[in-house]
Specification:
4 copies of one chain form a homotetramer.
Chain A: E1 5-7, E2 10-12, E3 31-35, H1 40-49, E4 56-62, H2 70-73, E5 86-87, H3 90-93, E6 98-101, H4 108-118, E7 123-126, H5 136-143, E8 152-153, H6 167-170, E9 175-177, H7 181-195, E10 204-210, H8 225-228, E11 233-234, H9 243-255, E12 262-268, E13 275-282, H10 289-300, E14 306-308, E15 326-333, E16 338-345, H11 349-364
Parallel strand pairs in A: 3-4, 3-6, 4-5, 6-7, 7-9, 8-9, 10-12, 14-15
Antiparallel strand pairs in A: 1-2, 10-13, 11-12, 13-16, 15-16
C-alpha cells in the first residue's frame, strides 16, 4: 500500500498510486481535518497542530458547535486564522491528507469507513476507542456494541515480543487507533517489568489518580467544579473500566504470552490534566529496585518521550503538563514483597493528542518528534 | 484505676481517688488544654471543641505563635472568647482535666510523662505517633528514634480478635494514642475482610489519594499552592511510610494472627482534606462482592460513624469533609481475582481530631458522639 | 397577623387564630419542608437544619431527582433518616409549619401563593429572587418577567434609616424573601459607610471574586471543573447583574435617600464557596481608615454574625467557609482618595441558607442564632 | 552605543565596537545566562528559552539550590542537556551575551552594575523591580531602600504620548527593566482609555484576582496549598502595592500628563497562574462601550500579543495560560456611569518571562515574536 510520503516542511509525492494528484506537491504541506474540535481531545490536537511546522489545519468540525468560529469554542488556540466549525460529514472531510477523529466512542467507525473507501491514501487517526481492540469479544464485553475492527495501534514505544517496537508498524499505517490515556500510563509502566518476568502477572493492580479533562467536555453534574473540588472520587471499581482489555492486549503483545490479570481503579482528583498510574504486583524473592529500573531502562533508554527516573525518584503529573512525556519511577518494598511502578503523563498530550501526533508523524514520514515538546508547563 | 466520670453537660465527681477536689463539681465542665493549637491537627481539635457542649477549652498553647491571640492564628474558630496562645510547658498545662497534644512526632513523650506523673487523674491524648506502636523495633525501624512506650490506641471501632472492640479499652484509659489518619482509613477498610479470611493477607496493597492538610502547616516548598495545584505527587513509595507498621499492628489485633504484609502508597492530590484509601488484595476463588459487604456489615452495622455502602456504590472524600464519618464500599473483580475495598474519611476529623473526641468522650464517660457530626460540608 | 410562636425545642400554640390545631402542640417541633433539596441552596438548608434543634425536617422535594432517596442526591447530609425526595406540589407541601423554597428564579411565586392562600399561618421563605425587589420596574428591567410582589426582606442586620434594623420586621413575617448572596456581601459592606456619608454614593464599585456553588448545580459546560480550574472568569460585566437593584434598594432603605449608583463585577474563581466583595468609592478629603471602621462598628458592634476587623486586617473567604459569619475590613488610600471596604462570606451560608435560618428563627420566635455557628471549616 | 545585532537563527557581528570578538560569529547563537533559575520567574524564562531557536542557554545560576542539577529543581524543563545550577557571581556570569536576572527585589543592582562595567555590550534584563521606576522618591516610598537607577522599560506595546511605542526604545537598550506582572495587566488595560480622555483619571480603580505563582516559590505559610485552596485573600489593600507607582508612571508616559490616581487591590485566588485586572473608572456622560473598544483598538490593532475582544466578550485567565497574550474586554455601565475594562494575562509569561523575551528579541534584533506563542494551554 503506497502513499504520499512527506518530509518535514516539504512534500514529495511518491511515485506510486494512490497518491493524490497535487497541483504543486513540493509547495504544500499535508492538509489535516480535525473532527470534534470543540471537545478536549480535539481541541488539544488543534493546540499541538498550531505549533506543528509540517502540516496545515485545513478543516475543523464539530457537532453542536458547528457554525461557530473556533475562537469562541477554543479561545486559547491561535491557528493564525479563525476557522468556522463545520458539520461533521463525508463532504466536509473529503480531500484531506489526514483526518483526526475525536468523537465519542462508537461514532468513528462509519465515517472512517466512508473516507477510507473514497480515498485509500487518506490517513485516519481515531482518538476514540472503536478500533483499538483486536478481540471482538473484549469489545462486546466492555463496550456493549458491535466491533468496528482493529486498526494499527498508535503506541510507538510499546516493546513487542519479537524485539521490535509498535513504532515499526506505524510507518505504513493508514488507519491508526490512538491508545486510551489510562491504558498508555499503565501499559508502558508494566510492560517492561512483566516482559522481564520480574513480577507476578496474575495479579497486577493499578490505581490511577486522574484529572477531569479525561472525562470530556460534555456537561454532566458530577463533573462540575463544585462537585469535584475538594474530593477524590473513584469510578469503574471492580474491573469494569474499558481500558482493562486494552492494557492486557498490550501486555500480551509485549510478552507474547497471555495470562496477565489486572485490577484497575481510576480516581478522579481535583486537577484538569494528568494521570498518575500507581501499579503494583508481587515480585519474586530477591528482586530489587535496581532490577525493576534495569528492565525499564532496557526498554526505554532510547525513547525520546519516556524517562526512567533514578532510584528513589518518582514522577508527578505536574512535571508533565502540556508535554508529550511519560516519566516512570519504581521501587521494591522488600517487607511486603511487592513492586510499585509509577508513571505520570498528561492525559491530553502523551495520553491522547501528542500520541496521535507521534503516529501521524511516523505515518507521514516526518521526524517522530515534530511539533512535540518534552518541556512542561509548571507551576 | 479510678477517675472522675462526667456526664454530658454536667459533672459528678466519682467517690474514689485520685479525682481532683473541685470547689463545685456539679457546676463545671472538664477543662481541656490543647497543645499545638496553631497547627492543623490542633486547630481542628479546637474547631470541634468549640461545638462540644461537655467540656471547656481552658488553655491553648503553641510554639512559634505563642503570645498571639487565637483569632490571628486560627481566625475561623470562635470559642466565645479569644485566648492568647501560651508557651507549651508543664506550668501552663498543669491543672487541666484533659490535655490534647498536637505536637510533631517525638515531642510528646517528655511532657506527657511529666503531666501524668504530677496528676495521675489527668487524661492525655496524643495526636502524634509517639505512643501508637507496641513494638519498639517497629518504632525504631520507622521513626529512627527511641520508643516512648505504648498507650491505649484510640480507634473505638477496631474489631478485636476476641470479639470485643477497641472501644472497650478506652473507657478506662488515661493515656490515649490517637491513630494516624492513613492508618485509620486502611485499617478499618481491611480489618473486616482480613478477619473474615476473604482476602490473601500476604500481599495487601493500598494506594491513597490524600489532601495536603495531612502534611501539616509548616511552610515547605513542596506544599506550596503553586507546586500542588494540578499535580498528583506520590511519596514514601516502596513501603517506607510510617503508618505501615500501625496498620499491621491493627490487623494483628483484629485477627489474632500475624503474617499480614502491606504495600502502601500515599499520593498527594490537590485538595486540602480527605483520604481515599483504595485497598486491594487477592480473593479466594468464588468470593463475591456480597461476601465482602457482608463481612464489613458484620463488623460495622452498629457503628455510628462507619457506613458500609450498598453494592455498586463507592465513597468520595467530598461527602465526608468536616464530618466524623468513614464510608466504605467494596467490589470483587472476578476477572482478575482481586477485591477492592475503598474507604473515605476526612483526615483532620475521623482521621485525627474527631477520633480524639470520640476517645475523649469515652474516657470521660460522655456519650461517644458528643460534639461530633455525621453531616459533612459539601459542596 | 397572629401566628404560632415556638420556643426553642418546644412548641406553644398562641391563643389566636390562624394557628393550626395540633394534636399535642407542646410535644412537637415545627415541621419544615425544603423544596429543591437536590440543589446547592436547598442542600445547604438541609445541612444546617440537620443540626438545628428547634425544627423537624418533615418533607424534602425536588424536580428531576424526585423519587430518589436523599442519601443518593446529597450523601453528605445525615438527617437521622433517609427521606425520599417528593415531587414539588401543593399536595406534598400542605400541612407544614415552614416551607423553604429553593427554586430557580421565577418558579416560587405560584406555589407560594397557593400555600399561603390555603394556610395563612404557614411561614414561607423564598431563597430565590422572586420577592426581593419592591420596584416592579426594577424586576422587569433585570429579570425580564412579571413581578411577583414584595416580601419581607430577610437581612436581619441591615440598618434602616429610622434607626431600627431589618430584624424588627422579620419577627412578624410569614413571607420572607431571602437576600441574594452577592447582594448581602456588598450591601452590608457599603451600607454603614454610605449612611455615614463617608463615601461618594454616586460611583460605588464592587468587584467580587466568587466561588462556583453560587452558579448552581445544573450541569453547564462553563461550570465544569476543567473549565473552571486555573481560571478567573468575569460575568455580567457592565452593570447587568441582577443583584445591582437589590443592593441599591438596600442602600436606599439604609439611608432613606436614593441617588446611589453602583458598578458590580463578579468574577468566578476556582473555589466552591465564598464571596469576597471588594468595594471601592471616593472619600471626602481627610477621611481616614479609622472613620470607616468607626462607621462599621457603630452599625455592627452588637451583631453576632458580623465581625469588623481591626485596622490593617482584611478577611478571606477561607475563614468563613461553612460559618454564618460576614467579616469586614476597610482602608482609605489617601494617595488616591478612595476607600476600600472588603467583606467575606460563605455564599451558601450567610449568603443563603444561614440567612434563611436566621429569619426562620426570628419568625418562629426562636433565638436568632439557633442552629448556626460562627466557627468555619478550615483549612 | 553599538552592539552585536543578531538575526534569527544566525549571527552577524556589527562592525562597530564594543562587539565582542567571536571565533566564528556567523555560526553561533547568543549565549544567555539565567540568574535565579530555581524560582518561578527564572524557571519560566528557561521554559520559554528551551523553545527559543535564536539563543543558547549557556549558564543557569541559583542561590540555595546551587550545585544541584536543573532536572531536580525544575524537572518540567528540557533544555536538551541538564546543567548544574551555578552560584550567582560575576565570575559565573562573565562572558555571556545576555544575562537575565530573576532575583528578589533589591539584589540585582550590584551584580548588574559589575557586569555592565566589565562588558558594555552585554544585554542585561532585570525581572525584578529595581530599575523600573524613574522617580527615586517613588522607589523610596514603596520599596523602602535606595534607588538603583532607571533602565529602559520592557513593555513594547505601551503607547507613548508622542505617538511612538515603548518598543522603539528597546531596540537600542542594553539594560532592560522587565515590568511587574500586575502593572502590565493594569497599564495596558487603562492606558488607551485614559489617553483617549474617556475616563476620569483621578479615581481609577483596579481589583485583580491573581494566582499564587506571582508570590514566588519561597516557602511561606500563607502560600501553602491548604491555606490557599478554597479561599480568596486580598493583600496590599489601601494603595500600598508596589505596582501602583509603576502603573502611574506608565500612564504618565502614555498621556504626557500626570494627575492620574489609582486604587489597586490584588486578591489571591486558588490558581497557580493568571491575573484578571478588573479596572473601573467614571466615564463622561454619553460615553459608550463602543468608544472604549475603539480606543483600545486604536492602540492595539497592530499588536501581535494584545487582543481586544468584541463587544460583550470578556477574557478569562484560563485562555491565556502559558501564552504571551494579553486579552482585553470593556463595557460601559450606563446606569452607574462607569467603565469596566478587564484584561487577562499569564503573570509568568506576558507578565514576566514572555515580556522579557519580547524585549530580548528586540534588543538582539530578532523578530519580536521569536520563541513566543499566542496559543495557551487549556483546559
Amino acid at each position: 500500500m503506497h502513499r504520499t510520503v512527506y518530509t518535514s516542511g516539504m512534500t514529495s509525492a511518491s511515485t506510486a498510486s494512490p497518491a493524490r494528484t497535487m497541483s504543486d506537491p513540493a509547495s504544500r504541506r499535508p492538509r489535516v481535518a480535525v473532527v470534534g474540535a470543540s471537545g478536549y481531545a480535539g481541541g488539544e490536537t488543534l493546540r499541538l497542530l498550531a505549533g506543528h511546522p509540517g502540516v496545515e489545519v485545513a478543516t475543523v468540525t464539530a457537532h453542536s458547535s458547528a457554525g461557530r468560529p473556533l475562537s469562541e469554542v477554543a479561545p486559547h488556540i491561535d491557528l493564525g486564522h479563525d476557522p468556522v466549525l463545520q458539520e461533521t460529514s463525508v463532504e466536509t472531510l473529503r480531500g484531506h491528507d489526514v483526518v483526526v477523529l475525536a468523537l465519542p466512542h462508537g461514532q468513528s467507525g462509519a465515517i472512517a469507513a466512508a473516507l477510507r473507501a473514497e480515498d485509500p491514501s487518506v490517513l485516519v487517526l481515531d482518538l476514540g476507542a472503536d478500533h483499538r481492540l483486536e478481540s471482538a469479544q473484549d469489545w462486546e464485553d466492555y463496550y456493549r456494541s458491535e466491533h468496528s475492527g482493529t486498526w494499527t495501534y498508535g503506541m510507538p514505544e510499546l516493546p513487542l515480543a519479537d524485539g521490535t517496537r509498535q513504532r515499526d508498524l506505524l510507518r505504513d499505517a493508514h488507519e491508526i487507533a490512538v491508545p486510551g490515556c489510562n491504558a498508555t500510563a499503565v501499559s508502558l509502566a508494566l510492560a517492561p517489568v512483566v516482559r522481564a518476568g520480574l513480577v507476578d502477572p496474575a495479579a497486577l493492580n493499578a490505581v490511577l489518580p486522574v484529572g477531569y479533562s479525561g472525562a470530556g467536555r460534555a456537561a454532566k453534574q458530577h463533573l462540575l467544579f463544585s462537585e469535584a473540588a475538594g474530593s477524590a472520587s473513584p469510578y469503574a471499581v471492580g474491573g469494569t473500566h474499558r481500558h482493562v482489555p486494552e492494557v492486557l492486549q498490550n501486555l500480551r503483545r509485549a510478552t507474547g504470552t497471555d495470562g496477565q490479570r489486572l485490577t484497575f481503579t481510576p480516581v478522579l482528583v481535583p486537577m484538569s490534566r494528568g494521570i498518575l498510574a500507581v501499579c503494583t504486583a508481587r515480585v519474586a524473592e530477591g528482586t530489587t529496585t535496581g532490577d525493576l529500573l534495569d528492565a525499564l531502562q532496557r526498554d526505554y533508554a532510547e525513547e525520546h518521550f519516556v524517562t526512567v527516573l533514578p532510584e528513589g525518584a518518582f514522577p508527578t503529573t505536574g512535571e508533565v503538563t502540556g508535554a508529550n512525556t511519560l516519566r516512570i519511577g519504581a521501587a521494591v518494598d522488600r517487607r511486603s514483597g511487592q513492586a510499585t511502578v509509577i508513571s505520570a503523563l498528561d492525559n491530553l498530550v502523551k495520553g491522547t493528542a501528542g500520541a496521535a501526533l507521534q503516529s501521524l508523524n511516523l505515518a507521514l514520514g516526518l521526524p517522530e518528534t515534530t511539533g512535540l515538546t518534552r518541556t512542561a508547563l509548571a507551576p
